[in-house]
Amino acid sequence: MKVFASWFRSWIPVFAVVLLCAPAAFADGYTVYDLGSDNSHGIYGIDSAGDVVIWSTSGCGSSAYCYTTYDNGVWTNDGGTPPAFVYDDGAACGSGVAGFNVSKSVCNDGWVGFGSLYNPNGDPNGIYLTSGSGVDFLGSGAAAQLFLNSSGDLAWTDGMSDEMYVAIQNQGLSYGTDFLVKKNVVAADPVPEPAALLLLATGLMGLTFAVRVKGHS
User: CB–CB of 140/26 below 8 Å?
Assistant: First the structure.
């Protein structure tokens, strides 16, 4: 046991150096927020910072419409008139995305958000986002509304669940994490990166060592 403990201590600096030197595989990811039901509600627009405005037909006294602002999925205020944002909603795309049966799409500054059904490539029905380097699946459903800003934040209404969502870009998520779930939507990338695997292996070795020491004490 003493030999094992000595061996383990001698390898700790090596593991630390490998973890520090391993590429972090930083990747953009998304936090997907559920903005509620679209019953008598709809998305009014999104600005370049990812603030989303929802319109509704009640909630602001005598006003015919009520406009609710969400900042990173969090309510900030209501008003009888739309906030004076510079809206950055994108525009309809001129062409589809290879391999997908695109039902509705929106483009903005190199980003493409789209809904697709019955894809010939076998990918599930739902909402997707791409900047040309890969296609990310944001959630199942059908795209009734799509709003996309130049930062790659996508707001949509799912015509199947009658819910409204926004996917906000998260910069610098490490170890290949594709999605950071916020409420009830998307699963994390199931494929761990090498640095994450090494970290897990180191933790398991430490746990095994602790159990053996306890068993021989």
Answer: no
